[in-house]
């Protein structure tokens, strides 16, 4: 019954002061709008980082050949020859390992017709594309059979394909790598720069055995990429891989490792975590404006209570109880914040979409941010509306009636 | 049946600018149903304070006040609000209509707090405004009405809940003499025809002449200089 009476009264009071009500709600509109827009920007950045991590092969460990010390001379990373395909196969047996990919790399000059281009050839097994989550744009990847036969085939990165072939499709063509004729089986999808600014598309992918024997003349490998089931598995496997490799390489306890392990999962966690922090930071800065909007509501409601003291006195004389007055003013504040919240959602979603459309920002509108901002607006309405409403309801009828 | 109003030794003190004022010094008063009573007195005699206590807008410091047989002396604010809504209709010198609110909505307001449904509310408010001769002014705002019309709206609002008591505090104080006479005639007629008990508080002799019983308030005490006992 209180609601049934206070509802239309509150609406009517707001309607009589349309301009003021709009201006008061504006604070909440901007507050809710900016929370949604800012969180959308943050969540967009988060999604982008997640994509980048995915493309780098997150949850992965990277084993690289290490340094050896010979007669006091340390030869630098990547100079040991002890890392082998057999090591990679042994690692693949460990629990928690999803895929392994042994790799070598050669710097080459590639030629096709009159064009040539300096790039690198990555020798790998078919598992490499799985570890890197790297699809093909056209053609096919090479297979285990190609690897077993050290076949003269390759898959081109987008940059290499563009530099050698321009707009023509390279699939089925033959390119010359260090004097070797290699058939192009496919072209990799564009991947862009990695987190360190290296163009990942500027490379050629070829069977591991072919690069080892025909281009480098070696039998060892330079790196093993290990895909694991998650960050926790990666952390556990880091120690196990270390133990396994030391054992396989017959290292004495006083000898240092002849390999290095990089845990990318850790990096991935860190980046994802900082993106989350970034989102929350943006969100909380925006919620300050929502708080300011709430203070605006309280301010106007207090003014309104003072202005309408006489009205409150008349209503009390006519039989309004304290809670009738309380609800009337509280509902006014709630209406303002709820209407402001709804319009703010429109503003926030609109500006996030506009930002995504007209600027470089990637945005992702998070449903939870809409819910959070709207309920926060409601809370702001109750919190900042309660004080003026209580003040109104506690007026003494004779003093309110006498008020000029 | 007990009298509608029964005051016993009512005292009221309050602070005004830091000075204690003993506004009512032991008021004894009984008002029977159907009376038309005038309470007169110069300004500062305690008229307003008495009116606030009679209207349940304020409580006495000591003594007892029974309204319609119910002791209201120690009621909480909500119970007082309920009593005002059911038992008392107010008419003020300055009309006290809700600004920017139509005549009809003004008259509906006490029915809202009485919990009367929307349709019945509208119906009763309409009927009461028509009875006051304002059938063609229902949608008007107070600022669009003359003083006399505003006071009629206030009267309609006071009577729409059919209260047994009508408290009129200087009801003609802001009106010219011709309109004053109309309002007083209306009060007289309501008293006669409907049996509404009317308590008129005024300092004007000619207004008090209307009443069958007159009391004068002086320095917080009532005496009966004239009229039948």
Describe the structure.
The complex is a heterodimer of chains A (404) and B (229). Chain A is an alpha+beta fold. Chain A folds into 2 domains: 2-52 and 270-402, no CATH class; 67-257, no CATH class. Chain A is 57% helix and 18% strand. Chain A has 13 helices and 12 strands. Chain B has 229 residues and is of the alpha/beta class. Chain B has a single domain (5-223), classed as 3-Layer(aba) Sandwich (Rossmann fold), CATH 3.40.50. Chain B has helices spanning 47-54, 77-87, 103-113, 118-131, 147-159, 177-194, 205-208; strands at residues 5-16, 19-31, 36-40, 62-67, 70-71, 88-91, 165-169, 197-202, 213-218, 221-223. In chain B, the strands form 2 sheets. In chain B, strands 6-7-8-3-9-10 form a 6-stranded mixed beta sheet, with helices on both faces. In chain B, strands 2-1-4-5 form a 4-stranded antiparallel beta sheet, covered by helices on one side. The longest helix of chain B has 18 residues, at 177-194. The chains are: A alpha+beta (404), B alpha/beta (229). The interface between A and B is medium-sized, with 23 and 27 residues.
SSE order and pairing:
The complex is a heterodimer of chains A (404) and B (229).
Chain A: H1 2-16, H2 18-56, E1 60-65, E2 69-70, E3 73-74, H3 85-92, E4 97-112, E5 115-124, H4 127-132, E6 136-139, H5 144-149, E7 153-156, H6 158-165, E8 174-177, E9 180-188, E10 203-207, H7 208-216, E11 223-228, H8 231-248, E12 259-263, H9 264-307, H10 309-317, H11 322-358, H12 367-393, H13 397-402
Parallel strand pairs in A: 5-10, 7-9
Antiparallel strand pairs in A: 1-11, 1-12, 2-3, 4-5, 4-8, 4-11, 6-9, 7-10, 8-9
Helix pairs in contact in A: 1-11, 2-9, 2-11, 2-12, 9-11, 9-12, 11-12
Chain B: E1 5-16, E2 19-31, E3 36-40, H1 47-54, E4 62-67, E5 70-71, H2 77-87, E6 88-91, H3 103-113, H4 118-131, H5 147-159, E7 165-169, H6 177-194, E8 197-202, H7 205-208, E9 213-218, E10 221-223
Parallel strand pairs in B: 3-8, 3-9, 6-7, 7-8
Antiparallel strand pairs in B: 1-2, 1-4, 4-5, 9-10
Helix pairs in contact in B: 3-4, 3-5, 4-5, 5-6
